[in-house]
């Protein structure tokens, strides 16, 4: 920590105008100069005062002799306890005697502390005596003791803060010249004020010291800046101080800039923070990894990947290695934008650079993979963090439990829940709600309600999300009336129903085919609130489309647009599917054209609906044209796209095109459905391409998929004629197991 330095005001004014130490005209207008400090500086330029001479009360001859006896005794008998030594003098000992004794032993620091402790046990010493010991401790470089002595003053006294501050400062100034003359004593006082939250007093101290030609050290000022920035509404003041203090000689360092950069980022002034980073070197400060990491974190938060990459390159040029915080921010951004594999590469880079990833990095990645539906990758990372001795917390467990629940893997979710409790980690409302939602989605509503009861017994209060999950589970089982009763219970408990809760009931009614009740509930929402959202409209549109009521579905779309709601691609896909299912392909094509004209990007599902209907009608030329149009607009085909086209081409006997698409989709990691395998096998067989048909059949068996009975019959006959009795018997067993047994089961049910 730098010592407080004495400046002449004339020198201060020279320093303040140095281009490396003050904000120039190119600085952001966000910074401004306050008048208060300027006035203080102006006044002190002509009235810098010396510290007062210390002149305590003179002792009488009798007091002088008494103090002499005490001094001689404690010096000669210093190995004995002071309480025993001072027993004969205790009845006559006054506060003045303490100060006069300290004068005699001031050069023996250990004895000063022992004697002061004895005096404190007897009675609270006066303020002057405390300040004297503070001065001696500072001069002896025992800064911790000086800090403790000042801090104790604020803890013990229950006076008006402004009065206490004024009195303490007066005594500290009064005792300064004769008892230590170490200016760092004022730094310690400044630090205690800041740590105690007395920020106005700290600033008053700073200004007061300017009258004596003293400036608080930059490290203490940094403490002030940081504490000020964390206080309510204090960021603006911290920036103001940052601009003012160079006027009186405070030379900000890298830590100072980091505080202000962080403050600017906190109030979303990322451009100003970045500008200050650029200006640091021009002002004599070198940015460090904290400077860059703070801004990188903020750019990650707002999703500006390009800025992040540019700053990373700058760090490399300056040979600054990213730290755990830098990497964590980048991992967060990549996960947020769905770039999970790139995020995992960053994790690997961390380890190769010797930076140990923490719980937060792993949890962020686990959450990202769970949201992507890749629970196996999330589990692998979960196991890896435990192998690295990084303990998962309850957030990590909750995240992966939620992932398993979303994937319908309730046994695994239950196992992790038990492991979490065994480790002493307490599940919260989010953990329980994830399990409840998972069991509801898997149709185990009784189990969901059992967990709800456990949750209540644990003293946790179910929230609106919990009850919405339970209502959804009831609706999926067709118990919409019970779900409605649950909603009534929620209202009685004072819970405000949200749009998701209403949407759950609307969705349940639509799936039961009770569209009239769904319409009524939607009308109630419009009147009483919450207002229907895009999901509400899309759900009802889907019900209309599936029942062939396309005019009603189209009117709902128009109502959405008139009400200012933005339809999603799912909304248009619902409408597209409705047109196609109703045979209204011309309307479907018009909808696709309208979407593209309005800048609404279709996805693979949008195109798949059209391609499927044209394939069913054996119009593979148009289906192929739609496929090409889809690729040209930048929409990537999915597994359903390939399966639709393959089945269509096989039906039209276009086996060359079907085989090409099969190889392409396998190369992209997509899997054929059983119906696509069946279509390929039949297509090759009808075209007398037996080798190709056999290859596809064997591949289908390796994938564990069941062929149609007709296809089994073909290959049983074929292998029997070829004399392959072992394969023939094997295929017969498969027919019995997969076709006949399964058919019997279905009849039984």
UniProtKB/TrEMBL annotation:
**Is Repeat among the key words of this record?**
yes
Task: Name the InterPro entries for this protein.
Answer: PPR/CCM1_RNA-binding, PPR_rpt, TPR-like_helical_dom_sf
Q: Which UniProt keywords apply?
A: Repeat
Q: What ranges cover the PPR repeats?
A: 253-287, 288-322, 323-357, 358-392, 393-427, 428-462, 463-497, 498-532, 533-567, 568-602, 603-637, 638-672, 673-707
Q: Which SUPFAM superfamilies does the entry mention?
A: TPR-like
Q: Which Pfam families match?
A: PPR (PF01535), PPR_1 (PF12854), PPR_2 (PF13041)
Family, according to the entry, reads as follows: Belongs to the PPR family. P subfamily.
Official protein name in the record: Pentacotripeptide-repeat region of PRORP domain-containing protein
Q: Look up and give the organism this protein is from.
A: Morus notabilis
Q: What is the lineage of its organism?
A: Eukaryota, Viridiplantae, Streptophyta, Embryophyta, Tracheophyta
């Amino acid at each position: 920590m730098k010592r407080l330095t004495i400046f002449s005001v004339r020198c201060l004014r020279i320093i303040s105008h140095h281009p490396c130490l003050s904000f120039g005209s190119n600085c952001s207008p966000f910074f401004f100069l306050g008048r208060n400090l300027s006035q203080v500086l102006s006044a002190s330029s002509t009235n810098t005062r010396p510290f007062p001479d210390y002149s305590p009360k003179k002792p009488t001859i009798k007091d002088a002799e008494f103090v002499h006896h005490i001094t001689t005794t404690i010096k000669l008998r210093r190995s004995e306890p002071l309480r025993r030594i001072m027993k004969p003098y205790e009845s006559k000992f006054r506060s003045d005697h303490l100060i006069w004794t300290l004068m005699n032993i001031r050069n023996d620091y250990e004895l000063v502390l022992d004697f002061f402790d004895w005096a404190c046990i007897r009675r609270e010493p006066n303020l002057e005596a405390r300040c004297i010991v503070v001065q001696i401790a500072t001069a002896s470089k025992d800064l911790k003791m000086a800090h403790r002595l000042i801090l104790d003053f604020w803890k013990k006294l229950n006076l008006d803060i402004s009065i206490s501050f004024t009195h303490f400062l007066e005594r500290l100034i009064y005792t300064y010249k004769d008892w230590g003359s170490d200016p760092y004593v004022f730094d310690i006082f400044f630090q205690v004020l800041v740590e105690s939250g007395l920020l106005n007093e700290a600033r008053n101290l700073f200004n007061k010291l300017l009258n004596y030609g003293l400036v608080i050290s930059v490290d203490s000022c940094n403490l002030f800046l940081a504490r000020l920035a964390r206080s309510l509404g204090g960021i603006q003041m911290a920036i103001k101080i940052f601009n003012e203090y160079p006027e009186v000689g405070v030379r900000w360092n890298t830590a100072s800039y980091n505080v202000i950069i962080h403050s600017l980022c906190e109030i979303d002034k990322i451009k100003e923070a970045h500008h200050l980073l650029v200006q640091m070197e021009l002002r004599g400060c070198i940015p460090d990894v904290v400077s860059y990491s703070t801004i990188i974190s903020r750019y990650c938060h707002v999703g500006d990947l390009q800025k992040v990459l540019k700053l990373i390159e700058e760090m490399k040029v300056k040979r600054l290695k990213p730290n755990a915080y830098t990497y964590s921010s980048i991992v967060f951004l990549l996960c947020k934008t769905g770039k999970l594999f790139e995020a995992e590469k960053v994790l690997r880079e961390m380890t190769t650079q010797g930076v140990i990833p923490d719980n937060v990095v792993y949890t962020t990645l686990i959450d990202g993979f769970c949201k992507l539906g890749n629970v196996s990758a999330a589990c692998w990372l979960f196991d890896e963090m435990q192998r690295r001795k990084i303990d998962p917390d309850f957030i990590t467990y909750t995240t992966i439990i939620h992932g398993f629940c979303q994937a319908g893997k309730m046994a695994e979710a239950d196992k992790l829940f038990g492991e979490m409790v065994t480790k002493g980690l307490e599940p919260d409302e989010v953990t329980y709600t994830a399990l409840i939602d998972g069991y509801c989605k898997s149709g185990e509503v009784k189990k969901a309600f059992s967990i709800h009861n456990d949750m209540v017994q644990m003293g946790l209060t179910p929230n609106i999300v919990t009850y919405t999950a339970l209502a959804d589970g009831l609706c999926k089982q067709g118990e919409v009336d019970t779900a409605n009763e649950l909603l009534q219970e929620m209202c009685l408990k004072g819970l405000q129903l949200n749009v998701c809760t209403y949407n759950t009931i609307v969705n349940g009614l639509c799936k039961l085919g009770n569209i009239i009740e769904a319409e009524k509930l939607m009308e109630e929402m419009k009147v009483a609130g919450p207002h229907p959202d895009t999901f509400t409209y899309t759900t009802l549109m889907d019900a209309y489309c599936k029942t062939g009521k396309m005019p009603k579905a189209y009117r709902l779309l128009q109502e959405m647009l008139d009400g200012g709601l933005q339809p999603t691609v799912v909304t248009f896909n619902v409408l597209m599917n409705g047109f196609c299912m109703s045979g209204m392909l011309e309307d479907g094509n018009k909808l696709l054209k309208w979407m593209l004209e309005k800048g609404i990007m279709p996805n693979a599902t949008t195109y798949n609906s059209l391609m499927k209907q044209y394939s069913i009608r054996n119009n593979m030329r148009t289906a192929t044209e739609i496929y090409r149009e889809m690729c040209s607009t930048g929409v990537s085909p999915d597994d359903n796209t390939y399966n639709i086209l393959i089945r269509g081409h096989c039906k039209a006997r276009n086996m060359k095109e079907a085989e090409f698409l099969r190889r392409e989709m396998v190369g992209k990691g997509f899997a054929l459905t059983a119906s696509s395998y069946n279509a390929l096998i039949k297509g090759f067989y009808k075209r007398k391409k037996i080798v190709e048909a056999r290859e596809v059949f064997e591949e289908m068996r390796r994938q564990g998929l069941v062929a149609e009975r007709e296809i089994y019959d073909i290959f049983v006959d074929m292998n029997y004629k070829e004399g392959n009795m072992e394969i023939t018997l094997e295929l017969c067993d498969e027919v019995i197991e997969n076709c006949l047994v399964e058919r019997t089961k279905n009849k039984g049910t």
